Amino acid sequence: MVSESLDGLAARLAGASGFIFDMDGTLVLGDSASSGYRPLPGAEVLLEELTARGIPFRIFTNGSAIAPAQYAYNLRVAGLKVPDSAVMTPTTAAAYWFSERGIRKVRALGRSESFVPLRAAGIEVVENAAPSCAVEAVYVAYHRAFTFDDLEAVLADLEDGAQLTTASNVPFFASEGGRKIGTSFAINAAITAMTGIEPVILGKPSLAALHCARSLMGLPTDATHKLIVVGDDPGLEMRMARAASAASIGVTTGLSDATDFGAHADEQADFVVRSLDELCVRLGERIDAV
C-alpha cells in the first residue's frame, strides 16, 4: 500500500528543496520519436507556479534520442514554459558519471545529436561502429538503427576492458498511442547474452542520476532527502527516490495505476495522485501555509 495519505502531502511539499519530474507519462505524452507532445493536466500550471516561487526543478526524461535542449524546445512548443537548462537526459547523468571517474573516451550507441552533454563535458565520443581503440566505456542510448557492426565494435571494446553502461534498461515507456519499446533494453539484452556483462545504468533509477539532478539544481548533498521525485513508473522514479530517501509522488497518467505504486516495497510511492492537477491543489495549500 502507499505509505502516506494525501493529507500529509502539503506538509511534505512545505519542506521541499527541489523537484525532479519525469517527462513522458507525467508532464506530457508524445509519440515514439518523443515529439508532438501533449501536456497532461496540471503540468503547465505546476511548472509556472514552481518557477514563480523560485523552487528549483529538473525535468528528467529517460529518453536519450535527442539533446536536452531539443527536448526543452519540444516542451515549449507544447506550451510548457521551461528553459533548456531545466531538462536533463540520461546522457546528462552519464557525462557527470564519466567525468567523476576520469573516463575521457566513450563509444556511444545512438544518435549523434543526443551526445551533446558528453562532448560538452570534454569526453571524446566514438559513435556507433566507428573504428577506434582505447575506448574506456561503452554507452548504450536510444538507437533504433542498431546493427551487427555496432555489436561487433562493442564486443571488441568490452574484450579490451571497456566498461558497459547504458542510458536506460526498461523495456517500455509511455506515449500517446500506448507503450513504446525502449531500444536500449533490447540492445543491452543482446550484449549481456553474448558477454555475461550487465550494464551500469546511468539514467533512472540510478542514484548517480538523482545526484546529478540535485547538483544541477545547485543543491547540497544534505538537501537530497528533501527532494520530491514525481513520475509514472514505480521501477524508475519511485525506486530512485526510495534509494535516496527522497519523497516520491506517483501519477496515474502514464504507465501505472494506483495499485502499481504499492506493489513492491522498494518501488512504493509516498503519495499517489491521479494527475498533476491534484498536486497543484496541494502545492497551493503549501504556499498558503508559508
From TrEMBL:
**Which named protein is this?**
HAD hydrolase-like protein
UniProt entry tagged with the keyword Hydrolase: yes
Q: Which domain of life is it from?
A: Bacteria
Enumerate the UniProt keywords alphabetically.
Answer: Hydrolase, Plasmid
Gene3D superfamilies registered for this protein in UniProt? HAD superfamily/HAD-like (3.40.50.1000)
GO cellular component terms, alphabetically, are: cytoplasm
The GO terms this record gives for MF are:
phosphatase activity
